[in-house]
Every structure is written in C-alpha cells, then in structure tokens.
Amino acid sequence: MQYLPNIIFALALAFGLGFFVMNIRKLIRNINLGKDVNRKDKKPERLKNMIKIALGQSKMVKRPLSGFLHIIVYVGFIIINIEVLEIIIDGLFGSHRIFQEVLGDGFYAFLIGFFEILAALVFVAVVIFWLRRNVSNIKRFLSKEMKGWPKKDGNNILYFEMVLMTLFLVMNATDVHFQQAGIGNPISQFITPLFDGFSAEGLHTIERTCWWIHILGILVFLNYLYYSKHLHILLAFPNTYFANLNAKGQFTNLDSVTTEVKLMMDPDADPYAAPPEGEEEAIPEKFGASDVADLSWVQLMNAYTCTECGRCTSVCPANLTGKELSPRKIMMDTRDRLEEVGRNIDANKGVFVDDGKQLLNDYISPEELWACTSCNACVEECPVNIDPLSIIMDMRRYLVMEESAAPQELNMMMTNIENNGAPWQYNQQDRLNWANEE
Amino acid sequence: MMVPTMADMMAQGKQPEVLFWVGAAGSYDDRAKKISRAFVKILHQAKVDFAVLGTEESSTGDAAKRAGNEFLFQMQAMMNIEVLNGYEVKKIVTCDPHSFNTLKNEYPGLGGKYEVFHHTQFIQNLIKEGRLKIDDTTLKGKRVTFHDPCYLGRANDVYESPRELIKRLGVNLTEMKRNKSTALCCGAGGAQMFKDAEKGDKEINVLRTEDALETKPNIIATGCPYCNTMMTDGIKFKEKEAEVVVKDIAELIAEANKL
Ligand code: SF4
Ligand code: SF4
Q1: Cα(B135)–Cα(B65) distance, integer angstroms
Q2: Which of A58, A400, B61, B74 is most exposed by smallest CB count within 10 Å?
Q3: Between residues 264 and 303 of chain A, which touch chain B (CB distance below 8 Å)?
Q4: What pTM was computed for the model?
Q5: Do the Cβ atoms of B33 and A434 come within 8 Å?
Q6: Burial of A428 (0-12, 13-18, 19+ CB in 10 A)
Q7: In whole angstroms, what separates CA A332 from the centre of its chain?
Q8: Assembly ipTM
Q9: B-proximal residues of A, 314-353, CB under 8 Å
C-alpha cells in the first residue's frame, strides 16, 4: 500500500498529459483545415523574430506598465517550472525535495529562494492585472466582445495563478524541515508564523495537501489552455515564427485571379475553348473567404494565438470612432467558428457536415468589414504578430468577387476605374491637364 | 509647365532618369494637382531628367484591390506593367503612398519590377547628391506637425525621409501624441476615400485633426494627397482654416525655395 500515492500520482500525470496531447492534436487538425501558404523561407529571420518577439517580449513592453508586469508573470511562469520538475520526480519516486540532495544545500537554497521571490512578485503582478481588468476603467477590457466567457476566462487565469503561487508558498511554509534548515525561504518564513499553533502532524498534512493541489492544479491548468486565451503561452512561438515578413502594405496577389486575367488579356486565347482534359469537372476556386476553411493555416493559428488583450482594437481608427469593427473580435470570431467546425467534425466521424452557418454574416458582419481603412495599426500593435487585416481583406474579396456585394459607392468607384482608369468620372484624355493649369 | 511624356521622349530616342507616376488624385483632384505641380517645380530646379506617362497612365488598381476586387486590380496592374515595361522604365517616383506601395510591393509578383521612391525619399536623395538645396529661411519659426500616411509609414516603414526634409525647412517640428508607427490613420485608406464611413460616433479625419491641433501647428504637413484631403476637411470641420494650413512636403519645399 505504501506505493499508492506514487501510483495515484502517475495516473493523474498520465491522464493530465494524455488529455492535453489529445487537445493539441485536435488543435493542429483544426489549424490544418486552413489553406496552405508557404512560410518555410527565410528561416534565420523567422527565428530571430521568434526570439525577439515571443521569447524577448519586445512588443509587449511598448506599453511599459502592463509590459513589465507581464514579463514578471512570464519569467515566473517559466522558471518556477523547474520546481514542477522536482515535484514530478518526487511524486513518481516518493522522494522529498530530490533536488536538494542532487544540487547541494547552497545552490538549492538559492534556487528555491529565487522561486519564492518570483512567486511573490507574480502574485502581486497578478493582483494588479486583476484590478486593471475589474476595477479600473480600461476601455479595451470593457468592449462588447469581452462580455461573458472572455471576461471570465481572463479572470480564471488570474485566479489560477494566484492559487498556484499561494499553494507553493504555503507548502514551503509548512514544511518543517525546510523551515528549520532556514535556507531558501525568504518569503515563506513570514508565512510560517501563521501556523504557529499547529502540531507537526497538522503541518505535514497541510504541506502534503498543498503539494497535491499544486501539482493537480498545474495539470488542470495545462488542460484549461485549450479552452482559453491562455493558449498564447504556447502558440506565441510558432505564431511569431511563421508571421508575415513582407512589407505590411503588401497584400497577396491571388494566383487564381492572375491565371484568369492573363487568359483574358491574351489576344491568342480562345474564350470558347473547351477546358483541358480532366479539368471540366474541377470546381472553380472560390475567391476570398466566407468561412474558416477558406483562410490559411496561418490565419487560423493566429485565431488560436490571440490573447484577447485588445491592443489592436484600442488603436483601430474605426473602433476609436465608434464603428462596429474591432480587430480583436475578428480574431475571436474566427476562433469560435473554427472550434464550432472542429466540434462538427468530431461529431460526424471526421467529416464536416454543412451546418448552414459560416464565418461571414453568422459571426462577422459586412458592416464590420467595410469599416476597415487597411491602416495596419492592429497588425503593428499585436504583441504576438497576429494579422487581423488579412482576414478582413480576404472576406472583402469574397463579398466583392463572389457576391458582388460591395457598397454602392465602391461599385461606382470600380466602374470608373474600369471605364476611365481613375476612381472618379474623368476623361482619360484629360490626365495631363494638371501640367498646364494655374 | 514643362512636363515631358514618355511618348515624347521615346520619339526623341531618349530615356529619362526617372518616371514620375502622377496617380489619379495628382492628375484630377484640384487640391492634389497643386502637389504634382510643386513636385515638378522641384524636379526642374534640381535639373532632373524625368517624364510622365500622361494619358497612358491608368489607376494602379490600389483602391480596387483594397475594396476586395482583385480582378480589377490585376487587370489594371497588367495593363500598366505592359506600358511601363514597354518603355523600359527602371525607376519610378510618386507623391502618392498608395501608388508607391502598390508599384513597389504588389507589381513585382505580376512582372513589374522597378525601383520605386516616394517623393520625400527622392528629394532627400537629390539633397544628398548635392543637386538640390532647401532654403531654411522662408518658413523659419513656423510650427509644423507631420501626419504619417499609413501606406508610407507602417506599410513601408518610411518615417524619416519626410521628417528630415521638414527639419531642413528651418521650422519647428512638433510630433503628435500618436506618431510614426503609432500614427492614427486619416480615414481615407482601404477605399474608404470613395465611400461614406460606416455608422459610428465620429469621423476618423476629425479625430486625427484633433491630434494635430493639440500641437498648435501653423502647418500640418502630409505626404499623401488623400491624407491632405482628409486633414483639410478636418480643419474646415473644426473651423480652423484661418490659423492652420495643410500642405504637402513638396509644396512646402517649393514655397521655401520660392518656386
Ligand atoms: S487595419 Fe482595419 S482593423 Fe486594423 S486597425 Fe486599421 S482600420 Fe482597424
Ligand atoms: S490580435 Fe493581437 S493585439 Fe489583438 S487582441 Fe489578439 S493578441 Fe491582442
């Protein structure tokens, strides 16, 4: 019976990790529903971007206060994971603070002491984050799209972190041997007095309870990621690696259109010619995007990576002037629809069955799409290099090329370009008149 | 005003140093035409051998592309590329950041590869090469703020050329709170210029004009004909026409050099 805790621990660990892997596979499958786009080039530049932006958080610190707090939580998160490693080894093999033996008292004390300080800093940072979200009137946390689950999700993450940090510190505070040694306890020594009246056995129970809840909490948190904006802690890395490296003003030229335009402009092409052998039945390619499967895998990965911080929306000129458009909502809608499509596939044995819905209209309205000035402010601002503008453009392409549903004035503009090579109704022959006026 | 066309040049068997891409606004819009003329005066002063396409120029297709009409864009692009390649054009300069962006970034993939300059970059090169000097006394002491066009700034990371030119005018350049990569759009991009704004509580150009007015400027400098229209309308809306003017950097240089 003495191995029971080890067995329970191993089972919990296997179950937690297994469920996580299952969700990650689902995530990858969903992302791969997107169209292919080549992001395999320029590896050194991509790596540099990832190191600078995801690892180095270079875009986070553009807003100094939240950037600084975020770095504390982020560094804390990564470094305290070393402690989790110890917990896992202890849990599996029934050892106690195995690293103390392996690393020696001095270094161990230094490490744990450092973790304790980090844990305390993380706790404080998280409390400030909570206050910013719930007490101060920061506009980007109060937008329409942040009602309901997104708001709860944001707070859940903060509660998780508060609880985990507290458990870690209380666990140390109630570890009698650890406190008696008096090393590596710069924070927990101040918590110990709270437990003054407790028997040795009582303290041990508390210490064990904290230990268990701490590691189970971490496993639960790991599995919470998939359902949460917190997924960005993993996806920020591939997302910055595969981000667009071209000038932000450069929009893609649709290859399918190029082929057709070339045919149209080729004087030798016979418009009535029968399509080449084998292509008669081919479904003509859809122009632009009306649903998630029309987007690229990078755009879909963007949607899962979005941390709903709203920095994009807070600089969007359309949003700032009260229009419906919010680039953050574009990303959240894309993710929600992708999840819906994913669940549909799960429920139908691996194939998507038409549900009469799509991203356009059911999630994102034309009014939102037509409010965008293509200014790239959202793209510039996003701390993890998400490109909401590319989705907006692909959906406009669908509206115009598949549905001829542009606003009336834009149709006039386009007719003018077609007829006289300018967006206004002027005579092509008057193009050089400006040179002789004045 | 002497504005040679590529067709004239070709007839004389000559190849100009650079093609001036005028753009639809610069050709037809009354306000923007003044910018085209100011830039031509500068080109003349620096003795630049240039030409325009004249009636052979057509819309780059930028507005159509951003409105979602990739077909129309690519038809325009291929038509223009045929003309440009026919004249063996290598170097292009334009006062319109939208044309600049499209020619520079979106034409190469369709077979149109040129060296493309925004006029502020081109003028800066003229100064570096010693072909042009800017008189820093005419406008001395004026308070100037610069509005970054999205398609020059964020879209192509050109922030310094316009600013360095402004500094050479001898004026006081004061930045708005949102500037360079954080500059607010004027509201014209993405084909918004050609339609009414969607429902909201304010016009974007008014919000941007307020940013500019906070710096208490005499002059709002721009480097884009569309931004120029938007900011000019904003100033009218705020009834500040008496105190503040909106000018393109080319116009300011022409004015400083008394051209
Ligand atoms: S590109 Fe469009 S969505 Fe993004 S900030 Fe500009 S107007 Fe808003
Ligand atoms: S797209 Fe980027 S900036 Fe916008 S909410 Fe998501 S993570 Fe934040």
Answers
A1: 40
A2: A58
A3: 264-265, 287-288
A4: 0.94
A5: yes
A6: middle
A7: 10
A8: 0.96
A9: 315, 317-318, 320-325
